[in-house]
């Protein structure tokens, strides 16, 4: 069974508002769940936007670092969510964060991806609903060209969660870990690669 983007947002909001399960707990569950699936590798490039998809990426990075893995974290984007900010504050105490401000910063990212076994995409989540600008299109194309084994958090960046359509460019993942549920559009675009669900504790009723 798959789920629409709006239904997923509704279920998450209900879990937080009505059942008072904090959004940071859900983020921790998502990150820990993916960490448990991918910790067999030794080196990782983790690329995070500043929304909650990026926050999941920061949680994954933290657990990998705490378990002795080589992890390079790259952060980009504008306004950060409070959940992202909290996890960034924690991670800054554990490792150096690389900030991508413009295309001049791409060289360091490319070097990292070519050296490390895994590239983790935590740039955009299911909330993306607009065409990508040239900066993000170039970034995604670079990841596709230079990532050795590409893992997408929830959904490949650049893909519409409902239709599978691409917003000008789309990450081509080897595997996507869909958080809580597989989204409708993920069955309509092969760039998700292998598809697995990650349980995070969303409250749902029997008919949902």
UniProtKB/TrEMBL annotation:
<feature type="binding site">
    <location>
        <position position="154"/>
    </location>
    <ligand>
        <name>(6S)-NADPHX</name>
    </ligand>
</feature>
<feature type="binding site">
    <location>
        <begin position="125"/>
        <end position="131"/>
    </location>
    <ligand>
        <name>(6S)-NADPHX</name>
    </ligand>
</feature>
<dbReference type="GO" id="GO:0052856">
    <property type="term" value="F:NAD(P)HX epimerase activity"/>
</dbReference>
<dbReference type="GO" id="GO:0046872">
    <property type="term" value="F:metal ion binding"/>
</dbReference>
<feature type="binding site">
    <location>
        <position position="157"/>
    </location>
    <ligand>
        <name>K(+)</name>
    </ligand>
</feature>
<keyword id="KW-0521">NADP</keyword>
<comment type="similarity">
    <text>Belongs to the NnrE/AIBP family.</text>
</comment>
<feature type="binding site">
    <location>
        <position position="121"/>
    </location>
    <ligand>
        <name>K(+)</name>
    </ligand>
</feature>
<keyword id="KW-0413">Isomerase</keyword>
<dbReference type="GO" id="GO:0000166">
    <property type="term" value="F:nucleotide binding"/>
</dbReference>
<keyword id="KW-0630">Potassium</keyword>
<dbReference type="InterPro" id="IPR036652">
    <property type="entry name" value="YjeF_N_dom_sf"/>
</dbReference>
<dbReference type="InterPro" id="IPR004443">
    <property type="entry name" value="YjeF_N_dom"/>
</dbReference>
<feature type="binding site">
    <location>
        <position position="53"/>
    </location>
    <ligand>
        <name>K(+)</name>
    </ligand>
</feature>
<protein>
    <recommendedName>
        <fullName>NAD(P)H-hydrate epimerase</fullName>
        <ecNumber>5.1.99.6</ecNumber>
    </recommendedName>
</protein>
<keyword id="KW-0479">Metal-binding</keyword>
<keyword id="KW-0520">NAD</keyword>
<feature type="binding site">
    <location>
        <begin position="52"/>
        <end position="56"/>
    </location>
    <ligand>
        <name>(6S)-NADPHX</name>
    </ligand>
</feature>
<keyword id="KW-0547">Nucleotide-binding</keyword>
<comment type="function">
    <text>Catalyzes the epimerization of the S- and R-forms of NAD(P)HX, a damaged form of NAD(P)H that is a result of enzymatic or heat-dependent hydration. This is a prerequisite for the S-specific NAD(P)H-hydrate dehydratase to allow the repair of both epimers of NAD(P)HX.</text>
</comment>
<dbReference type="Pfam" id="PF03853">
    <property type="entry name" value="YjeF_N"/>
</dbReference>
<feature type="binding site">
    <location>
        <position position="136"/>
    </location>
    <ligand>
        <name>(6S)-NADPHX</name>
    </ligand>
</feature>
<feature type="domain" description="YjeF N-terminal">
    <location>
        <begin position="8"/>
        <end position="208"/>
    </location>
</feature>
């Amino acid at each position: 069974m798959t789920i629409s983007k709006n239904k997923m947002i509704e279920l998450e909001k209900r879990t937080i508002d009505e059942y008072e399960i904090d959004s940071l707990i859900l983020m921790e569950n998502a990150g820990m769940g993916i960490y448990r699936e991918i910790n067999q590798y030794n080196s990782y490039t983790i690329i995070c936007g500043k929304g909650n998809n990026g926050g999941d990426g920061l949680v994954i990075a933290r657990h990998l670092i705490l378990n002795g893995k080589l992890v390079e974290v790259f952060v980009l984007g504008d306004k950060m969510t409070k959940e992202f900010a909290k996890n960034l504050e924690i991670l800054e105490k554990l490792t150096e964060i690389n900030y991508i401000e413009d295309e001049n910063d791409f060289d360091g990212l490319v070097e990292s991806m070519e050296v490390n076994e895994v590239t983790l995409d935590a740039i955009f989540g299911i909330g993306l609903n607009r065409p990508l600008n040239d900066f993000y299109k170039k970034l995604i194309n670079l990841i596709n060209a230079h990532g050795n084994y590409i893992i997408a958090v929830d959904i490949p960046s650049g893909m519409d969660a409902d239709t599978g359509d691409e917003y000008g460019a789309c990450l081509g993942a080897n595997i996507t870990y869909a958080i809580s549920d597989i989204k409708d559009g993920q069955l309509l675009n092969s760039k998700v690669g292998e598809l697995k669900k990650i349980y995070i504790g969303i409250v749902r009723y029997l008919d949902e």
